[in-house]
Amino acid sequence: MRKVGIAGVGHTKFGRAEIPLVDVLALAALEALDDAGVKTGKGNVDQVFVASMGAGILNRQSSVASALVDTLDLQPAMAETIENGPASGASAVKLGYMAIASGMCDVALVVGGELMRVVTGWEATDFVATMLHPDAEYAYGLTLPAFAGMFTRLYMDKYGVTEKDLAMVAVKNHEHAMHNPVAHIQLVPNFHAIIEDEDAHVINPYVAEPLRVYDVCPVSDGAAALVLCAMDLVDRFPKKPVRIAGIGQATDTHVVAEREIPTDLLAVRLAAERAYAMAGLKPEDIDVAELHDAFTILEIAISEEAGLFPRGEGHLAARRGDTRVGGKLPINTSGGLKAKGHPLGATGVSQIVEIVRQLRGEANGRQVEGAKHGLAVNFGGFGNNVVATILSKEG
Amino acid sequence: MEPRMYAYRCTACGKLFHPARAVCRRCGGREFEAVPLEGEGTLLTYTRVYALPEGYMKPWLGFGIVEFPNGLRVSGHMNTEDLTVGMKVRATVGVVKEGVGRDYYGFIFEKAG
Ligand SMILES: [Zn+2]
Questions:
Q1: Which of B73, B76, B85 lies nearest to residue A258, judging by beta carbons?
Q2: d(CA B95, CA B105)
Q3: Which of A101, A2, A5 minimizes the C-alpha distance to A391?
Q4: Which residue of A has its CA nearest to B94?
Q5: Model confidence at B1, in pLDDT bands (50, 70, 90)?
Q6: How many A from CA of B15 to the centre of ligand 1?
Q7: Do B54 and B27 fall within a single domain?
Q8: Are A154 and B50 an interchain contact pair (Cβ–Cβ within 8 Å)?
Q9: Given the DSSP bridges, would you call strands B40-49 and B61-67 parallel, antiparallel or unpaired?
Q10: With contacts defined as CB-CB under 8 Å, which chain B residues touch A132?
């Protein structure tokens, strides 16, 4: 297999887009192509992979990859649209990796994007819930926040995680986002005001007990893009490509209630183990991580399942400050889903954009000094389809 | 006819599942028979959700995961306000969502006893 690298990255400002989905995708794609020094026009990009969970349902547009190839003038490049729930982004990166590693092509463009704010918050919540089991979950009005709330209660009872620990993760990620110009939310909540003050329940009410507003990511529009290349062609590109060292993916029961140990995120563990094995690395080798904090509890739980901290101690690491920039193992330096935003199909690509920026030393005020290996975990369903990706700095 | 909820028993090895599935997780069997799933169970975890999806007119709704004595675990609505992990609950069946042209039935749990 050929080694595969990332030669260029692009990222729109997450938040509210006032332009159509394909235009948002194009913005991120052009930034990535320019960053990689790859021209548009025939023959420069061999394959295009576009991740979007909601294009068909929210935007009533199908086959967005075909539309994107046209507007970017990349024909006759091969192109397909990938839907794998909130893990669509990292799935698209995996497919791009496979296209190059197999020898099928040299240069692939991977774009993830979503336009969610075209519908109300209730409709968006309903749309996201369509990935749950149609009869045993979705039909009950169960949603991702509902499962996250029930998971959080179990985690609190078992490991002693508190609401304050969760608020600490939220504030930390908002602080990181202040140094990331593409983050949706550029505002740091006051820890005392959202969790300790007697009026905390007013500005930070419960969404799905025991999770509050500040434990849940916002609804965002946006796109992120990568140019993948064969590492044997590295001389073609102005910036030294960051290598995709390992990719792991795993699935778990569709029905959340059927999990044998309800506090386990088995697919995260297996996906991470597979990625470490492929990369020939251990959790101790990771210098920076982007973990799918759609809910604050998930940053803690994923950090444990991915082996970065011992079981039941992720919240202790957060309390110690280990997970902030400047700490032992900074997590979600981009602001995470919590503060950067979570345009579903964009997220897995966006996490990898952040790791590339960290490994290149381009992360400015949030830079992790000397970072060599980074991990991204993109979490689909309530943990039933998870992709872990490890990037390494070359040389 | 009163709506009922069912477990699905693998006709080859006897293992129970809810909801229905194509292949038995224990033996690979592909045939199942429906058996009523009802009675009392234990509440494993719960939440009260304030931001409900489209189609609900209520300000909040309680949800829980309940384990039946036969080991099956299911999600359902909680029709009682004072909830504690480990409490005994009784399964009833009712409308859990009003759809266009059809209603959806599911587990609604009440305090046992
Ligand atoms: Zn069987």
A1: B73
A2: 4
A3: A5
A4: A140
A5: low
A6: 5
A7: no
A8: no
A9: antiparallel
A10: none
Q: In which residue are the tokens 């948002």 written?
A: A24
B86 has a chain A CB within 8 A of its CB = no
| B42 inside 8 A of chain A by CB | no
CATH code of A34's domain: 3.40.47.10
Q: Do A145 and B52 touch (CB under 8 A)?
A: no
Query: Which residue does chain B place closest to A206, by CA atoms?
Result: B50
Residue B6: burial class (beta carbons within 10 Å; 0-12, 13-18, 19+)? middle
Question: B7-52 pLDDT, tens per residue?
Answer: 999 999 999 999 999 999 999 999 999 999 999 999 999 999 998 8
Residues from chain A that touch B61, judged by Cβ atoms under 8 A, are 141
SS3 A376: strand
Q: Which residue ranges of chain A lie beneath pLDDT 70?
A: none
Does one domain contain both B44 and B86?
yes
Same-domain pairing of B48 and B1: no
Q: What residue numbers bound the domain in which B66 lies?
A: 38-113
Percent of chain B with pLDDT strictly greater than 70: 98
Report percent pLDDT > 70 for chain A. 100
Task: Give the CA diameter of chain B.
Answer: 46
Q: How many domains does chain B have?
A: 2
